[in-house]
C-alpha cells in the first residue's frame, strides 16, 4: 500500500510540473508587448518655417529644431530635443508706446520638444510633437534702426500633428499644423491672443533615422 501511495504521489507531482511548464510555455507564446525591445538610435536637425496669424495679420516664424531619435521597435519611435523660432514679419503695436506708434513686435521662443513617430519606415507617416518652453517679446523700429531693450517674457505650449515624407534615407520633410498657446503677454499693447493660434508648419529634417 505504501508503495502504491508513493507511486501515485510521484505521478501526481510529475503531472503537476508538466502541466505548469506547458501553461508557462503557452502563456509566453500568447503574451504581446507594446515594444519588442529592439531599440536603435538616430538623430536629426534642420530648419522650420511656421505661418499663422499674429495680431490680426499673417505672421511668419523661422527657426530650427533637432532631436535624438529612439526607435523603440519597427513601428514606434520617439525623439527628444529642442527648437527655437523668431518672428520675421512686421506687426505694428496696436496702441502707441511711449508716444510712438511706428513700432513693431520683435521676438521669438523655444523650448524642449517631444515627438512621437508611427511607422517611420512608410513613405508617408504621421508624427505628433509638443514644445514646452518660453519666449521674449520686444519692440523695434520697422528697419531695425532702434530696438527697445525692455523684454517681456512669456510661457509657450505648442502641440502639433504632421505628415512626414521620406525623401531619402537621410532627408525627410514634414508638413502639418501646430497650435501655439502663450501665457504672460500683456505689455506693449499686445495680449496672449495676438500670438496664440493655429500655424501651418514645414520642417526639413536631415540626419540618421533608423
How would you explain this protein's 3D organization?
The protein is of the alpha+beta class and 210 residues long. It has 2 domains: 1-31; 36-208, Beta Barrel (Porin), CATH 2.40.160. It is built from 2 helices and 8 strands, in the order αβββββββαβ. The chain has helices spanning 2-30, 192-195; strands spanning 40-54, 57-71, 76-87, 103-118, 124-141, 152-166, 171-183, 197-208. The chain has an 8-stranded antiparallel barrel. The longest helix has 29 residues, at 2-30. It is elongated and about 65 Å long. The N and C termini lie far apart (69 Å). 23% of the residues are buried.
What are the low-pLDDT stretches, counting only 5+ consecutive residues below 50?
1-28
Total helix count?
Answer: 2
- Report the sheet with the most strands, covering strand number, pairing sense and barrel closure: 8 strands, antiparallel, barrel
Average pLDDT taken over every residue: 86
The order of strands across the largest sheet is 1-2-3-4-5-6-7-8
Rg on CA atoms, Å? 28 Å
Q: Ends: how far apart?
A: 69 Å
The helix/strand class is alpha+beta
Number of domains: 2
Please bin the fraction of helical residues.
Answer: 10-25%
What order do the helices and strands follow? HEEEEEEEHE
Q: State the total count of DSSP E strands.
A: 8
CATH level-two architecture of the largest domain: Beta Barrel
Amino acid at each position: 500500500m505504501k508503495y502504491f501511495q508513493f507511486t501515485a504521489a510521484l505521478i501526481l507531482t510529475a503531472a503537476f510540473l508538466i502541466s505548469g511548464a506547458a501553461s508557462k510555455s503557452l502563456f509566453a507564446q500568447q503574451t504581446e508587448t507594446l515594444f519588442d525591445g529592439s531599440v536603435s538610435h538616430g538623430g536629426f536637425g534642420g530648419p522650420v518655417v511656421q505661418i499663422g496669424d499674429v495680431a490680426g495679420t499673417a505672421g511668419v516664424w523661422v527657426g530650427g529644431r533637432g532631436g535624438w531619435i529612439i526607435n523603440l521597435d519597427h513601428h514606434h519611435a520617439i525623439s527628444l530635443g529642442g527648437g527655437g523660432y523668431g518672428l520675421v514679419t512686421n506687426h505694428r503695436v496696436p496702441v502707441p508706446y511711449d508716444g510712438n506708434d511706428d513700432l513693431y513686435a520683435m521676438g521669438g521662443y523655444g523650448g524642449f520638444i517631444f515627438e512621437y513617430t508611427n511607422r517611420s519606415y512608410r513613405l508617408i507617416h504621421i508624427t505628433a510633437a509638443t514644445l514646452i518652453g518660453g519666449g521674449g517679446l520686444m519692440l523695434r523700429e520697422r528697419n531695425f534702426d532702434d530696438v527697445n531693450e525692455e523684454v517681456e517674457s512669456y510661457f509657450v505650449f505648442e502641440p502639433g500633428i504632421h505628415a512626414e515624407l521620406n525623401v531619402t534615407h537621410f532627408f525627410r520633410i514634414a508638413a502639418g499644423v501646430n497650435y501655439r498657446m502663450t501665457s504672460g503677454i500683456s505689455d506693449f499693447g499686445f495680449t496672449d491672443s495676438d500670438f496664440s493660434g493655429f500655424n501651418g508648419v514645414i520642417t526639413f529634417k536631415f540626419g540618421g533615422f533608423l
